[in-house]
């Protein structure tokens, strides 16, 4: 939260008397918050506000969880949240992998930027934390991750990236207002017809994910907060 400014005193020293010298200010260090009281203390345990027990996972999903642990060091909480229903989990994983990792005219960074810009419009806590970390890691620029979370328009983006995010956020906030001029702007920025489809598909996926995450109070893994800083 922003710090409040201290009000300066209106009381002046009496004429003929020197103003009292103020004691030198000491910089006080904020005491560390005990782990049990931190905002993220329960985020790796109470993943959603719903009481859903993990169901029986298929061998493929068990292997996928193992691969996440091997490569990332943890299983993303969004996967744990979907693990109550193996069919829904597999559908989510397959869609995610196809949209975010499969070959595309959009780079992995660009797809993560769309995820963050869309999630910023929707104020989705989970996705802003998780995909903000991905933008920091893929770009090698921690400030870009913060800019994307707060306001991508403040970032020094290329014309291509700006056109892409303008389209994705308009599709998020005013989908009924998207028209040919918006698609023409993407073509002018160098996107192909397939690229436009991919931009729309990634934006649509995160609009869905944002709403499920917000509805269930889905919590991001606490490790995301410190990644690529």
The first-level CATH class name of the largest domain: Mainly Alpha
Shape: globular
Question: What count of helical segments does DSSP give?
Answer: 9
User: What is the arithmetic mean of pLDDT?
Assistant: 90
The helix/strand order is HHHHHHHHH
Structural class call reads mainly alpha
Give the CATH topology of the largest domain.
AhpD-like
CATH architecture of the largest domain: Up-down Bundle
Task: Report the β-strand fraction as a percent range.
Answer: under 5%
Q: Helix coverage percent of residues?
A: 40-55%
Strand tally is 0
Tally of discrete structural domains: 2
By CATH's scheme, which homologous superfamily of the largest domain applies? AhpD-like
Largest sheet, in brief, is: none
Low-confidence stretches: 1-15
Rg, Cα atoms, Å: 23 Å
From the N-terminal CA to the C-terminal CA, the straight-line distance is: 20 Å
What does it look like?
By secondary structure, the chain is an all-alpha fold. The protein folds into 2 domains: 55-102, Single alpha-helices involved in coiled-coils or other helix-helix interfaces (Up-down Bundle); 107-229, AhpD-like (Up-down Bundle), CATH 1.20.1290.10. The protein has helices at 59-72, 77-82, 86-100, 108-122, 125-139, 142-150, 159-173, 180-188, 193-216. Helix 3 (86-100) runs antiparallel to helix 9 (193-216) and helix 4 (108-122) packs across helix 9. The longest helix is centred in the last third of the chain and has 24 residues, at 193-216. The chain is globular and about 50 Å long.
């Amino acid at each position: 939260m922003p710090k409040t400014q201290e009000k300066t005193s209106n009381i002046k020293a009496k004429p003929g008397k020197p103003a009292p010298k103020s004691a030198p200010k000491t910089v006080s260090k904020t005491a560390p918050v005990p782990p049990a009281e931190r905002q993220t203390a329960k985020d790796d345990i109470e993943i959603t506000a719903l009481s859903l027990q993990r169901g029986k996972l298929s061998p493929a999903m068990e292997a996928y969880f193992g691969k996440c642990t091997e490569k990332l060091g943890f299983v993303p909480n969004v996967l744990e949240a979907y693990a109550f229903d193996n069919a829904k989990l597999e559908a989510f994983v397959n869609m995610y992998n196809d949209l975010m990792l499969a070959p595309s005219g959009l780079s992995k960074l660009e797809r993560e930027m769309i995820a963050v810009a869309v999630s910023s419009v929707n104020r989705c806590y989970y996705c802003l934390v998780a995909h903000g970390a991905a933008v920091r890691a893929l770009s090698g620029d921690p400030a870009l991750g913060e800019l994307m979370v707060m306001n991508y328009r403040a970032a020094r983006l290329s014309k291509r990236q700006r056109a892409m995010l303008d389209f994705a956020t308009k599709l998020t906030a005013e989908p009924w207002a998207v028209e040919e001029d918006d698609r023409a702007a993407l073509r002018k920025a160098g996107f192909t017809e397939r690229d436009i489809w991919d931009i729309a598909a990634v934006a649509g996926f995160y609009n869905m994910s944002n709403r499920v995450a917000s509805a269930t109070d889905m919590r991001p893994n606490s490790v995301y907060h410190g990644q690529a800083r």
